[in-house]
What we know:
Elements: E1 2-6, H1 10-22, E2 26-30, H2 41-46, E3 54-57, E4 67-70, H3 72-83, H4 91-121, H5 127-147, H6 160-169, H7 183-193, H8 196-208, H9 218-225
Helix pairs in contact: 1-3, 1-6, 1-8, 4-5, 4-6, 5-7
Amino acid sequence: MIDLYYWTTPNGHKISIFLEEVGLRYQVRPVHIGKGEQFAPDFLKIAPNNRIPAIVDHAPADGGEPLSLFESGAILEYLGDKAGQFLPRTLRERTEVLQWLHWQMGGLGPMAGQNHHFNRYAPEPIPYAIDRYVKETARLYGVLDRQLEGRDYVAGEYSIADMAIYPWAKGWEGQKQRLEDFPNMAAWLQRMAGRPAVVRAYALVEAINPDPDALMSAQARKLLFGQDR
């Protein structure tokens, strides 16, 4: 059994997609980031960076005590090895998948996240910041689009790289992008959205967080973006 500490954000979706794909038994433990539950002492023991997702694996491969992990990329790599799926063992194939996983973690996630912030959450518009992150998001989608030329999935075969990238890329409209500029990405988004495990993973949203606009409240913004903790 795996405990998934989760909220309905792109990073949270990465892990629910993986778990649905492989059929590992898991229990969702919601962490409402708009209410500040990510700062609870018990959660900080698992995720010291006060961010979701995090997991606790109650049956690690070494047979020892339950193992906790934070950071979505590290969790995907761990689970890929645990399940023996979606993360190749062979050197070149594994390296290809991990490159694109880290591309998402170090590039697309942070840049699209800042795009979201300045377009949606910032208390006042800052044109320079909006322009900077919209353009950088477009550059990154251009990189992804070229990679997907002639491929069904990012690293050839479906992998944890696709699971990491998709939850961010599906938000293209809110990131002020034009999907017609990225035809290979558009086709890939359709393939991803049609996977039954992806459908099941996103069904958690209504069950866990029926009011996503709650994060727009002043108190939620203070908790999410304040620097007083």
